[in-house]
Amino acid sequence: MKTNVMRTALATVLLAGMLAGCGDEPNPSNTSGGAALPDGLLLTAEPPDARGIVSAMAAAKDGDEVTIRGRVGGRKAPFAAQRAMVALVDLSLPYCGQDTNDDHCSEPWDYCCEPKDRLSKHMVSVQVDGANGKVLRAGLKGAGGIRELTELVVRGVVRVDAMGGKTVHATGIYVVPG
Fold it and tell me: Which domains does the chain have, with CATH numbers?
């Protein structure tokens, strides 16, 4: 149990570190010299058999292909600045004010109404890699209409780090309408 708590804590710290300083809105067109998003990344049709983040990640091992469904959020700034990275939250976890008229959160996508340990179990980091295998220097915010609380279906490959943290390396992203 102690190992699981340490893994969860480390994964949360790593994700927070990757997303720190994300106050600026990345430019998806990357006119500032960053790389462009790969052709075909933004899908025009929804991939079949998408699973929730919790169930998909519980069963996933390093190198497994997955198709997950989630909502952009989990942090005040769920997009990494000038990096093709985003935090997704399982749809089973309501964002602040989703099911109530309690609209006191200025940033409901940060899920501040949820305990951090519960939130971390419902989140995954998604990244798009460049040809060099490293996260692409491009912003995802705004690409294809992706914003905070946007529902996405992501197809990709799971990578597990040395501490057991899982990241989905996206090969396709579908923006769910509405």
Answer: 2-175 (2.40.50.140)
